[in-house]
Each structure stands twice: as C-alpha cells, then as structure tokens.
Amino acid sequence: MLVLTDCISTCSFSSISCVVKTTNNSFTSCRDPIYWVSIHRYHHQYVDSEKDPHSPIFGFWFSHMGWLFDSGYILEKYQERKNVEDLKSQAFYRFIHRTYVMHPFALISLIYIFGGFTYLVWVVGVATTWGYHMAFLVNSACHIWGNQAWNTNDLSKNNW
User: Fold this and answer.
1) In the chain, domain spans
2) What does the alpha-carbon distance between residue 135 and residue 68 come to, in Å, rounded to a whole number?
3) ∠ CA(157), CA(24), CA(114), 5° rounding?
4) If exposure means fewest CB atoms within 10 Å of the residue's CB, which of 15, 74, 136, 142 is most exposed?
5) H runs (alpha helix) in the chain
6) How far apart are CA 120 and CA 107, in angstroms?
7) Mean pLDDT value of segment 92-97
8) How much is the mean pLDDT over the chain?
9) In contact, 62 and 157? CB cutoff 8 Å
10) Is 37's pLDDT higher than 80?
11) CB–CB of 131/28 below 8 Å?
C-alpha cells in the first residue's frame, strides 16, 4: 500500500504498474486512490503536526489506526481533497473513485468461489489484517521508536 501511495503521489498515471497497483489496493478495501493519496500527501505536507491525518502527537493508537475510526476527524480537516486535482482529472481514477465499493465485494466473491471459506478467512481476513498492521506501523512505530540520525524537524525515526 505504501509503495503504491508513493507511486501515485509522486507521478501521474503513466505506467501499467500504477494501474495494477491501484486496482489491487481498491480490491483490498483501501478505499479509492483519490482518498488515500490525498491523506498521504496531507501527511507529508503537515508531518507530525496538528494537521497531520495520523500524527503520533495524539498517541500511538491514534497514529497506528485510531484515525481510521474517526471519520469526522478526517472530514473536518480534509473535506475537499484539493491536493489531488491531478488524479481527479484522469478518467481511470474517477472510475475507481465511483466504483471502489464494488471491488472488495468482487474480490471476496471470487476468493470464496475458487477457494471456499478457508481461503476467505486466510486471504481476506488474516492477510488483509496483517497487511494493514504492517503498513500502519510506519505511521506509529516509525514516528515514536527508534533513532533519529538527522534533524528533520519531525518525529520520524529509523527502526532498522
């Protein structure tokens, strides 16, 4: 998820790998690219401040995943998503934005049809949960624990 966000955050829709990664993230319930690229860009614009969407200054739990459950917080701060006009201007991303709710249901149905309940539990439940927590650790652990070798004027740390 993080590699894809950086791919779309920094470049325009120009490569097949961005299309594949965008479609994959839509299948894994990450919402649409316009949403999560906007959040990612706001995070880098306002890193570790009151305006950061998942700042560790509000605590470990909030920066790890608490911000996901407080939709009012995100809507209050970033309702208009003016930092993703480049994505809003492209038909592919507008299509994903309009249809992203259907993508996880399509994936879940296909997994169940081809693998049954066991695959559904492992591929959808366990793998998605594991993937989310690994990605969220960047928001929380990498801004709270570790060493800061350079003065970056934020709380980011090196953990490995």
Assistant:
1) 2-144
2) 13
3) 130
4) 15
5) 2-10, 16-27, 33-45, 60-61, 67-69, 71-78, 85-88, 91-99, 102-119, 127-139, 141-144
6) 10
7) 90
8) 76
9) no
10) yes
11) yes
